């Protein structure tokens, strides 16, 4: 058993002198607000420009969190009370929260073995579909977009900054993309998010929404885009210059972060090989996988739990993602409980039976950016040993 725990941090594991210096420059400038100050550094604007270049998108809006990014994306599409938004049955609660906060109705759909929305399970009459790229793997977006038809697709790429699908970056495939910079993500500012799109009108609406509906769309006391979209009442979900400074440095680290994660994942999977009863999660584009974890499905839930406990006992981090439960099992979602009353969505155990059966069997082994080849070999050896005991 390992004596020193594995550090499975990603961007957070690399926080250091460069981020510290970038924050210090902002602090010394006394210009912490992104649009003005005595010596504005423009860190948020520079971060947005970097995102556009790195992901190959036309527009990017930096915001205060990944959930804020979802809120802005839905607002850009005009999603509000009465709208029906397809949400995968397996996701983080923020995906549901953003829909509910918009006053819209989440409609839960089955996921397939990529853990993204099953293109064959999209209910009729949806106003928007949210495709969630769980743990750095982009679902089968070509099939999903074909099934969606004219219905806009929002990519919740909170866990997939830099992942790709058939040559296209996550967040550059659907109508809008949403990213998180929370501490556990590929790159981090502690908190923060980004909305991406190739549509100028959607960009302006998202930008206005995060900025009190249009008060500071481009800079202090100026605006743009009146010919495309008028200002409207909205929220303050802006990113500040300190977060922008950290995010900008981290963005520069993204290629090396992804390279390290992918190399470690390949080494672990090669070391594990093929084991009967250990079914890898399907990755539609293996070359675009962000590499932050290995995930398998065991024959049943009991085997998955024994497998996870066996790895943890050997010092290898392992768990069932989201406890092996669909998001609508969350007590608040099941009770349809909101801050203002009772929601009108449908949530009950058994709602998406294929998803419930699938995710109950998942196990996930996280991968850190600082893993060494020896770490990877040790992890692979532990997986083989535990599989021999459990399967």
How would you describe this structure to a colleague?
The model has no long low-confidence stretch (mean pLDDT 96). Helix 5 links the parallel strand 4 (128-132) and strand 5. The protein is α/β, with parallel strands linked by helices. The strands form 4 sheets. A 7-stranded mixed beta sheet has the order 1-9-8-5-4-2-3, with helices on both faces. It has a 3-stranded antiparallel beta sheet with strand order 10-11-14. The chain has a two-stranded antiparallel sheet with strand order 6-7. 35% of the residues lie in helices and 14% in strands. The chain folds into 2 domains: 11-251, 3-Layer(aba) Sandwich (Aspartate Aminotransferase, domain 2); 255-390, Alpha-Beta Complex (Aspartate Aminotransferase, domain 1), CATH 3.90.1150. The chain has helices at 17-29, 43-55, 66-76, 93-101, 141-148, 200-209, 241-272, 301-313, 331-334, 353-359, 373-390, and strands spanning 59-63, 84-88, 105-109, 128-132, 153-156, 164-165, 168-169, 176-180, 193-197, 279-280, 293-297, 337-338, 341-342, 362-366.
């Amino acid at each position: 058993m390992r004596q020193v725990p594995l550090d499975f941090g990603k961007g957070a594991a690399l926080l250091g002198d460069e981020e510290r210096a970038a924050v210090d420059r902002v602090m010394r400038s006394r210009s912490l607000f992104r649009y003005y100050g005595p010596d504005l550094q423009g860190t948020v604007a520079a971060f947005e420009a970097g995102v556009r270049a790195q992901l190959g998108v036309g527009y990017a809006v930096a915001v205060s969190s990944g959930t804020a990014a979802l809120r802005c994306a839905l607002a850009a599409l005009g999603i509000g009370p009465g709208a029906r938004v397809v949400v995968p049955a397996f996701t983080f609660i923020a995906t549901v929260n953003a829909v509910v906060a918009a006053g819209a109705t989440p409609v839960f759909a089955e996921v397939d073995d990529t853990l993204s929305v099953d293109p064959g399970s999209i209910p009729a009459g949806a106003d928007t579909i949210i495709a969630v790229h769980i743990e750095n793997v982009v679902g089968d977006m070509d099939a999903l977009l074909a099934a969606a038809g004219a219905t806009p697709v929002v990519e919740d790429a909170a866990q997939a900054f830099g992942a790709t699908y058939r040559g296209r970056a996550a967040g550059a495939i659907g109508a809008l993309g949403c990213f998180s910079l929370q501490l556990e993500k590929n790159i981090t500012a502690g908190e923060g998010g980004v909305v991406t799109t190739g549509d100028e009108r959607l960009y302006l609406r998202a930008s206005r929404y995060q900025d009190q509906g249009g008060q500071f769309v481009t800079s202090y006391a100026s605006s743009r885009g009146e010919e495309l979209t008028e200002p409207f009442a909205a929220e303050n979900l802006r990113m500040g210059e300190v977060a922008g400074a950290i995010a900008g440095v981290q963005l520069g680290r993204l290629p090396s972060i992804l390279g390290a994660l992918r190399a470690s994942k390949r080494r672990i999977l090669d070391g594990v090989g093929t084991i009967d009863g250990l079914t890898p999660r399907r990755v539609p584009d293996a070359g675009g996988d962000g590499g932050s974890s290995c995930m398998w499905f065991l024959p049943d839930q009991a085997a998955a739990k024994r497998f996870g406990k066996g790895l943890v006992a050997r010092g290898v981090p392992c768990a069932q993602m989201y406890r092996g439960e669909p998001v609508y099992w969350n007590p608040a979602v099941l009770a349809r409980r909101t801050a203002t009353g009772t929601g009108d969505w449908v949530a009950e155990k058994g709602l998406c039976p294929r998803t419930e059966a699938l995710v109950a069997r998942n196990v996930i082994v996280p991968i850190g950016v600082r893993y060494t080849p020896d770490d990877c070999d040790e992890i692979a050896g532990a997986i083989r040993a535990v599989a021999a005991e459990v399967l």
